[in-house]
Amino acid sequence: MLLKNNMENPFKKIAIIGLGLIGGSIGLAVKRFSNEIHLQGFAKSDLTVKAALSRGLVSEAYLDLSQINSDIDLVILATPLSSFASIVKEISPNLKDGCVITDTGSAKSKVIIEIEDILPESVHFVPGHPIAGTEMSGPEAGFADLFDNRWCVLTPSKRTNLDKLNDVKAFWENLGAMVEIMDPEYHDKVLAITSHIPHLIAYNIVGTANDLANVNKKEVVKYSAGGFRDFTRIAASDPIMWRDIFINNSDAVLEMLDYFSNDLDKLKSAIKDNDYEYLENFFKKTRNVRKNIIEAGQDTQKVDFGRGD
Amino acid sequence: MLLKNNMENPFKKIAIIGLGLIGGSIGLAVKRFSNEIHLQGFAKSDLTVKAALSRGLVSEAYLDLSQINSDIDLVILATPLSSFASIVKEISPNLKDGCVITDTGSAKSKVIIEIEDILPESVHFVPGHPIAGTEMSGPEAGFADLFDNRWCVLTPSKRTNLDKLNDVKAFWENLGAMVEIMDPEYHDKVLAITSHIPHLIAYNIVGTANDLANVNKKEVVKYSAGGFRDFTRIAASDPIMWRDIFINNSDAVLEMLDYFSNDLDKLKSAIKDNDYEYLENFFKKTRNVRKNIIEAGQDTQKVDFGRGD
After folding, report:
1. CB–CB contact A214 B189 (8 Å)
2. Is residue A107 a contact partner of residue A135, using CB atoms and an 8 Å limit?
3. Is residue A6 a part of any domain in this protein?
4. What's the pLDDT at A293?
5. Is the pLDDT of residue A3 over 70?
6. Domain count, chain A
7. What does pTM read for this prediction?
């Protein structure tokens, strides 16, 4: 981990809205970077507010968005995508001129249009997406080094202020992340294939297994080490968050899903036709993709799949 | 790990055919259990024979199956499924009366018919499947505790000798495994959903990502931590082994794949229709399956998905 403590800190007062895995981790990472930043937190349930305060995710926490301080420099939306527009509508009148709103949503294009449609001229929006997480959620799930050496993608629109974009970039770098600037539409396609479709098919296979009439559920659990288990981990991610991601990135998700289904039909035909050659070549090709990921430092060679502990 | 050293050892001389991850791990686990068992090993390549001897997976190793000792008590087939019939045909004339052949194949029904069709009366076949493995393969991949507390399923046919079935059960228990007896057809359905379909869709999504025209491959690798990475691990498993599994379990695989595709169509429609309720309920249901797997001790609560190291 490389702490960039010599970097200027563009935001002295920050409000985090949503204190789950991502919001909570941001709070802890901000505190790790500097103890001079004031952190206000907001959550929907009393339980989350209490847990956030007891874990020290933020300095003060509230249920009611009207409690937002008028001198906040940066607002971070770390709630499910479907809540963004109503939150921005509610807090905007209380924000000072030049205040920056950023977000952590996994889909960008639709949300940018929605937010910019209601955003006052005096407030800036810098769309962002830290690509980090685990299958856990809630105020107990966050940790300070979640973003260390992970990518955070910022997806400016035509309206995004470039100085504010740079400030948000510096903010994420201070938390340990590497920042990439990307076109929102392209971001949505990249994330559809690297994250959204993998989650969708993981959810789907777990659902299929759960509903099977001819195989006992107990056996599915008992013999899950053969591959299924790893899908259940992915399919344990937060249901509301993922519901919103699929609906907010439906165009790219449905497009990629069509490619996926066409490819699956070809594999199906090859199995039906005992086409040894097609299958072997296909599986050799996919093995190479794994090599590239390890070489790029995005995963370790360490054996994990099928571990028996 | 519970070593059952007090258990009788039914086989004094063992031949392992195939010295990859599974065959090699069997060799090491046999040696851990007892140094009084003689292990003969066979592999297709000179490189594997040399690596197996240098790692001490077996006591002696050969390329040529005709070198098999005539006093072998147990032959273990640990090669890809498509090779079983020709191996059994070749070695059977050299095996003593009462010798037992077992296997480690992930699909059972078709292979049982194939082998029993050519098996001499004097030799026994006990079909087996240790449900353990990693995404690694080859003679360097095996380790002695691979089978500890993992299931090994034995799938006797009508012709299987019950005494020999019990001997093979004791053999696997001596290696640390828990043994379950199951009907071959049912085994094939259970494995189709818990292992074969998960592998097939992992291979498929990696293939889709690799062929995309509108997203750069570099970006797929760079942002793979969002879910895709975990699929590439599964899709790095041995291509020949998996080619053979799909073709040898095509009936169950194609049946389950139809369920999977129907379920995926429903998720697709829900995304198209902005059906928040359907998606949320579906994702909550799959989250519960994860809980059951952790409660059954088939995985740990430990966060793994999305780890950044």
Report:
1. yes
2. no
3. no
4. 82
5. no
6. 2
7. 0.88
